[in-house]
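User: quick one, fold this
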Amino acid sequence: MKKEITYILSIVLSVMMLSCNDTETFSTNKALRLTFSEDTVSFDTVISTIPSSTKRVLVFNNNNDGIRLTSVRLASGGESGFRINVNGSKGPVVNNLEILKNDSIFMFVELTTDLTNSTEPVLIRDSIMFMLESGVEQKLILEAHGQDAIILHAPVCKKGEVMTLTGDKPYLIYDSLVVDSNATLNIEAGATLMLHSGASILVHGMLNINGEEGKMVTIRGDRTDRMFTYLPYDRIDAQWGGIRLYGSSKGNTIRYADIHGGNYGIICDSTGVDYSKLDIHNSIITNVCGHGLQAVSCKINVFNSIISNARQDCVNVTGGEYNFIHCTIAQFYAIGALSDGNALRLSNVKDLDPYDLSFHVDNSIVTGFASDEIFANRFNGNNEKSKDEVLFDLVFHNCLVTTDTIGAGRYFEDCIIDDVKGDINRKKHFKRIDTHDFLFDYHLDSLSTARAKATSDYIRILPKDMLGTERKNGNVDIGALQN
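Assistant:
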């Protein structure tokens, strides 16, 4: 019996030794190479002095023998600002690593850049050097663009002051930027405001965004990394707060601005219609998880502008006086789930209180995924007033509108009614509506029925579209963009 046990143990030990020897066989054959999940580890623009997100890289040994590495190191010795962590050990140098056959290890890369002392992004490069026991050295390239920014923590434009933000360097704003009553915030052409999560622009005084053709003002979130390889966070909503114009704020102007990625776009608290609340020219408000433009009892003009892709309504107004000329209001929100809202929602009643509403739209597009993108709620005569005593003045003139509301035709003059039953996808009108990569081009497709169907009535005051393309008499497209 003892002999049998000894024999069995001998076999088991032999198998274990063979298995160990097979697992732990390492080669110094110079033909063996490592491979990487990325040929070059690229970061998007990184704000100087602010740590980047972490990039994960897999290092593969796809050979039938193990490979030993005498070292993995940053070529710069860490002077570039890049940092590495290899298989749980921090750099800039990690020694004596093993990668078993047909196996891999994790490596993590981060970056914090010094100030570049430049107004433009500066290319930063480094390499990770892999020294194999065989004497072979392999290289993995690291690259990023460092961008200096002006960092503001809870900035306040105080009563009686004028604050000017220039286009020299981006602004990185933490908490919120507050404009007190009787104060003015001017944002110059080419400026970029990057707001941290939850930060907003809160205006009790006056806001003037003074972008120019070819020098848009950009207001966005501060994340410069990617959710997925193909999808930057800059195309995602809910990255920052939004712009709020309080009741004391009036006479605001927004020209050539790109406002995107917020919890909401612009909220306008009630001012009444005796004073202009806001004029918007040649601007875009898009990819927000609240309303794009929301207002209660305000006087607002919107020209040559795009308001699109909101988790709630693109435009939501209750009472007030509004004019939209050569605008595109498009509800193609598709981040996570379809929108709860419409392209356009109008009402002259809120919390049972009636408001006069005058809403005029000319040469504009109101469309989206749904078969009806216009919702109107009219005061029904409660609160000791008849509905005829409260103004409900809606006029859509020479517009492309997506609606199937029966009896609504009296509000639409010389309009194209896009009411094809069963066709809930109006992407056909535009050159690109990509709800996977979240890329949108609202120029009209060659087959769109809105091509050359606008009146020429507004050429004198709007001779160009929002991007500077000239409108020619007799060949004017409906919407904010001219082909």
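User: anything notable?
Assistant: Helices lie at 2-23.
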